[in-house]
Amino acid sequence: MKSLEFSVTKVVLMVLMVLVQTTGHAQKKSKDTDSDGAIRVFTDEDNAKLQTKRKGSKTNKKLLEGYGDRNVIDINLALLGRGYLGIGYERLLNHYFAIEINGGFTYRDAVFETFNLPHRYTSSLNSNVAYTTDLGAGAYACLQIYPHGTRDFDGIYFGPLLRYFNYNITGTVSPDVFQTFSPVKVDASYKMTDLGIILGNHTSGFENDFISNVYVGLGLRFSTINEVGYFDAATQKPVSSGNGQDPVYPGVVTTKKPLPIFFLGYTIGISL
Predict the structure, then answer these.
(1) Which of 19, 25, 152, 249 is 20 to 30 Å apart from 10, CA to CA?
(2) How far apart are CA 72 and CA 88, in angstroms?
(3) How large is the greatest C-alpha to C-alpha distance in the chain, in angstroms?
(4) CB 241 within 8 Å of CB 263
């Protein structure tokens, strides 16, 4: 009798063990299989998506861990056509922000003069004025904001841009037909301060050693323009020309005006 009870007990225990193993296997299978019962292999992409759902923005931060190149030396080729040659430095502050500073020399801005100072070369008033150019100074700075993050400047960015250019030009006025004055040198320079917002894109090549940057933008230009003018010796007021009787003398006429501006830039550089 005792041996029969022992045998029944042993059978019951074996059945319970089988049920436990079967339940555990079913639960494991439900986690690793699709709804149709097929076994699914999780890829790295699946794991990344799963982590994104669980951790949200923490995954993006983890994917951006570490940096590539954080420093770039470049030149802005587009500004060569505006009479400016400078050397720029870009620094990646973190995965979302970078700064750019650029300093150099100015010569003459042919585009600005064509649209804003055409009379310098066509007006009869300036027929006896010879213009000479000396090197001026220029600089600009930009804060670059990468909304999607970056490790080594690659990607789209936007941000504020501030520029200052001083074009150093002198007008030498020869004695006019009335011989009322001797040759006089007059400041004919023009200065401009630009402020605006730009949108750009950095790309890299040659194993990330070559960096190019294209940007466009809109802003406002505050210009100060010095012109050669003539003044009546008696009234001290500007005149368009001498009348042959009252003496006139040359001087500077300054105008200040804001202008809308479209930014266009293209830089090439090397990463450090």
Answers:
(1) 25
(2) 8
(3) 149
(4) no
